[in-house]
Amino acid sequence: MDDYESLRQQVLDYACKLAQEGFLKGTGGNISIRVPGKNILAITPSNQDYLTMAADDICVYDFEHQPILGALKPSIEMSLHITVYQARPDVGCVMHTHQEFASAVALINKSIPALFDEQVRFLGRSVEVVPYAPSGTGMLARQVRKTVKNNHNAYLLKNHGTLCLGPTPERSYHNVLLLEKVATAYLLALCTNEKISKIPVVIREIAFAKLRSEQKKLAEKE
Prior knowledge:
The chain is an alpha+beta fold and 222 residues long. 45% of the residues lie in helices and 15% in strands.
């Protein structure tokens, strides 16, 4: 029970951080943290203001959608979160945001190529677009499952928002911030109508291999 309380507090803390950054607007977006070694997650509730929530409002459910703690209804995207954890054992935290610049790239249906060293080092070889499906549906969860198997840590949800992953909440939060930086630079570069420079393929693959190795080690420690 103490482990659950700690995770609920972490979920609340990071939800507040994201809201203060402007990445969670009103009641939109959601985050979850997986209980290490178990098919259980702590997730933000549905239709609640993040800046007025308490840790007791955070929902704890198992992967069969059975409630463990919390009186509120969980996020409508809980199936999406569970799908990610099932497809990616290395992931310990999922953050779904509506951050402005990355969400804008999702509207033009463009994957973000490898632009910066740190992008490849933490997010992956590119930031892919997950095909559109209505929010909170099994269709969206299935589209996400297919896409996250490429082992990247950031995705654009077409006409919706973003999805950032990591082995820890700290790393997922870092990836949210990094994605917004990368998306902003990409949009500005597109406005020039000039050719956009990309990281060389060899460097990209070396950096991505390091990311995968490090992430597996971090996941094993959790």
